[in-house]
Design goal:
CATH architecture of the largest domain in chain A: Orthogonal Bundle
CATH class of the largest domain in chain B: Alpha Beta
Order of helices and strands of chain A: HHHEEHHH
Bound molecules: flavin-adenine dinucleotide
Number of domains of chain A: 2
Number of strands of chain A: 2
CATH superfamily of the largest domain in chain A: Cytochrome c-like domain
Distance between the termini of chain A: 26 Å
Structural class of chain A: mainly alpha
Oligomer: heterodimer
Number of helices of chain A: 6
Number of strands of chain B: 25
CATH topology of the largest domain in chain A: Cytochrome Bc1 Complex, Chain D, domain 2
Helix content of chain A: 40-55%
CATH superfamily of the largest domain in chain B: FAD/NAD(P)-binding domain
Strand order of the largest sheet of chain A: 1-2
Shape of chain B: globular
């Protein structure tokens, strides 16, 4: 508790430091921990496939086959969860488990692009195209929950 | 959490001081976090453990091992189950001969020369992380300074100074000088007359002149006085040619580049201030010291797959990852420190609220690259002894070893410390591509880079099988909904670890969360 009070004065600075470095509005937690320094943190990709290669492949692997260790990194190949666009958007925007929240790292266009890409590749053939507008709506909905 | 700032802490303290005198004031200051470093108030006092009471601890990071060490001292029978073939968790160093396996199946063999190492995770210890420093002292872990701020390190932005790296001293002096000049101008144009008194106005001008090293016209210019801070073109010497020549100050536009002030601002955070420490020989000296105290109590290669509990005990299912044999362990209580990306995939018998907390917290990632260079050219050619250089490129920074100064032979630089999206960009590459990218980008600072490079290793946290991420990533909203549920004692089970704290990704977080968790579990145990 007492640290939290103390932090507050600094957070304004710390969060400011990070937010202009391209990370959008990073979580305060990021500014408190020593896990990466400040630096460029947004992706520059334009197509869904590029975003997949640039970002998603880091965990889900080149062929979306996922991986196994102490836990599992979910495969996206042939994943029935992906039939629900809302499910995919919620995960990408807000993260869960090993998956970070990408709301601040990727633009609405990038998120729409990559969502459409994974829903139609790697053995997935789901219909319905997601637009950047859908992404923006979904992220503001969640913010006002 | 953040109310303290609102009524003005000073007003509050003055009131307390008036009401209760100095002692009360000191206690209040301590409670508000000003006189005391962290929340550490000594190791836990766990008196009166029931004879024969047992605890099973899941994960042998610092949180798990601190729990085991303190509970065992208090008389509990402790066992740790650890998935990896080594204790320490994120408290981890790699040396020549080590093998790093990724979830993709990719394997890296570390080829550093004897004595050299990379700390892929934690690497520095702020002076106020008193719990960690306490255990280092208790176990005799030798510490040395970690060079944090180095005025000779570089700052590089693609968009400033023509893309040419500048020394920290140059950039920080220029930034300060321009800000001081502008503020002085504003004051002299009476732009702040409605804000400050005449007396403060004069004091402020005087301060700007001194602090910003302004000339008699209140301008920031190239001269020997500004050079005394930012560096000379020709430094002062002896004898006939002893006279120095000043360096050229940069214009305002360059210093306004975000990379400039972000770097200056970085060192203002309490967690980034000096004095900073590191263990001599690698960060894992801390984990190793804990493990030595727990000889025979850590079962390695044991993957926990299920945690169940009833009125009488806790039952943990695990699998020996070498033999494939499945087994069960029973104990009276359980301290679980498994990171949430993994724990959220394990069946755990806890309340719905705790399960929701376990499921909801996302983790961030990071990538660190160690490059072994044939010689310390940064010291020999550029007078950089430890510290960092920063860049707008995805490697983000380059850090020079804080130890072994002036030694001949190879040394390891940190060639990338990537976070945010960059962490994922690196993770998606092969180790060779990661290293190639780091060499490419790092060459912006050091033309010797390619020629002196010997070998390297690139650790992408999102690909490490035992965690698949780097650290928890709380937001204020997530804290409101889930934090208390995550840390509460649930029957016979309590969670601990970096994720169960307000500190963020620091080893101190693992220790303070562990001490708090076992203290509450102990109370529960003696009450039972
Ligand atoms: C890149 C990076 C930089 C950092 N920099 C710093 C720094 O400079 N200074 C600092 O103080 N801190 C730093 N930290 C933070 C620090 O490393 C952590 O906060 C701390 O080490 C976490 O300890 P822990 O015990 O909570 O978790 P861990 O050390 O992660 O321990 C958890 C253990 O659980 C094990 N496990 C996982 N799954 C299972 C399973 N199914 N069964 C059994 N065991 C399992 C894991 O193998 C691991 O050993 C950094 C972290 C990272 C990643």
């Amino acid at each position: 508790m007492r640290q939290a009070g103390r932090w507050h004065g600094r957070l304004a600075i710390a969060a400011g430091v990070l937010s202009l470095c391209g990370a959008g509005a990073p979580t305060l937690a990021q500014s408190l921990g020593d896990t990466s320094s400040v630096g460029p943190s947004t992706a520059r990709s334009t197509t869904g496939e590029q975003t997949y290669r640039d970002i998603c492949q880091a965990c889900h692997m080149a062929h979306a086959e996922g991986g196994v260790g102490a836990g599992r990194v979910p495969a996206l190949a042939g994943d029935p969860h992906l039939s629900d666009p809302d499910f995919v958007l919620a995960r990408v925007l807000h993260g869960q488990g090993g998956m970070p929240a990408f709301a601040d790292m990727l633009s609405a266009e990038q998120i729409a692009g990559v969502t459409n890409y994974v829903r139609t590749h790697f053995g997935n053939a789901y219909t319905g195209t997601i637009t950047a507008g859908d992404v923006r709506r979904r992220s503001t909905d969640a913010a006002s929950d | 959490m953040i109310e303290f700032e609102t009524p003005s802490r000073r007003a509050l303290l003055t009131a307390i001081g008036k009401a209760g005198g100095t002692l009360a004031l000191y206690q209040a200051m301590t409670a508000l976090g000003h006189a005391a470093p962290t929340q550490f108030s000594g190791p836990p006092k766990l008196a009166g453990a029931k004879p024969g009471a047992s605890v099973i601890i899941l994960g042998s990071g610092l949180a798990g091992m601190a729990a085991a060490y303190e509970m065992s001292k208090a008389g509990y029978k402790v066992t740790i189950l650890e998935y990896q073939d080594r204790p320490g968790g994120r408290n981890y160093s790699v040396r020549g001969g080590d093998v790093i396996k990724e979830t993709s199946g990719t394997v890296q063999h570390v080829r550093f020369a004897p004595g050299n190492y990379l700390n892929p995770g934690p690497w520095r210890i702020p002076y106020h992380h008193q719990a960690l420093l306490h255990y280092c002292q208790e176990f005799g872990v030798a510490l040395e300074p970690f060079v944090q701020i180095n005025h000779a390190g570089y700052i590089h932005s693609a968009d400033a100074y023509g893309g040419k790296p500048q020394r920290f001293a140059e950039v920080s002096t220029d930034f300060k000088g321009h800000v001081a000049e502008l503020l002085a101008k504003a004051v002299n144009k009476n732009a702040l007359d409605d804000t400050i008194t005449k007396e403060d106005k004069d004091k402020l001008l005087e301060a700007m002149r001194g602090w910003g090293v302004l000339d008699k016209n209140m301008a920031y210019t190239s001269n020997l006085r500004t050079s005394a801070q930012r560096g000379f073109d020709r430094p002062p010497g002896g004898g006939v040619n002893g006279a120095p020549t000043p360096s050229e100050v940069a214009g305002l536009t360059d210093v306004l580049d975000p990379r400039v002030w972000q770097t200056l601002g970085l060192y203002l955070n309490t967690t980034m201030q000096t004095t900073m420490f590191q263990p001599v020989g690698g960060i894992d000296m801390i984990g190793k010291a804990f493990a030595k105290k727990l000889a025979g109590k850590i079962r390695l290669n044991s993957k926990v797959t299920k945690i169940a509990q009833d009125d009488a005990s806790v039952t943990v299912d695990y699998e020996d990852v070498v033999t494939g044999k499945k087994a069960q362990a029973k104990a009276d209580f359980c301290v679980c420190t498994i990171p949430l990306p993994i724990l959220s995939q394990i069946e755990v018998q806890v309340s719905n609220a705790k399960q929701a907390a376990i499921n909801s917290l996302p983790y961030q990632s990071s990538c660190k690259i160690g490059l072994e260079m044939k010689r310390r050219f940064w010291e020999q050619d550029e007078q950089i002894y430890g510290g960092h250089s920063f860049t707008t490129q995805s490697i983000s920074q380059l850090s020079y070893p804080s130890t072994g100064f002036f030694k001949p032979g190879p040394a390891v630089v940190l060639g990338a410390y990537a976070g945010g999206a960059a962490a994922y960009q690196f993770a998606g590459m092969t180790p060779e591509e990661r290293i190639e990218t780091a060499l490419n980008q790092g060459s912006v600072f050091h033309k010797q880079y390619r020629e002196e490079f010997s070998n390297g290793v690139a650790v992408a946290w999102s690909r490490l099988p035992w965690i698949t991420a780097c650290a928890s990533s709380w937001t204020d909203d997530l804290r409101k909904t889930h934090y208390q549920d995550l840390v509460s004692v649930d029957g016979r089970v309590v969670l601990a670890g970096e994720h169960c704290s307000y500190i963020g990704a620091w080893m101190e977080a693992a220790l303070l969360s562990s001490i708090d968790a076992i203290s509450r579990l102990h109370q529960r145990a003696v009450a039972a």
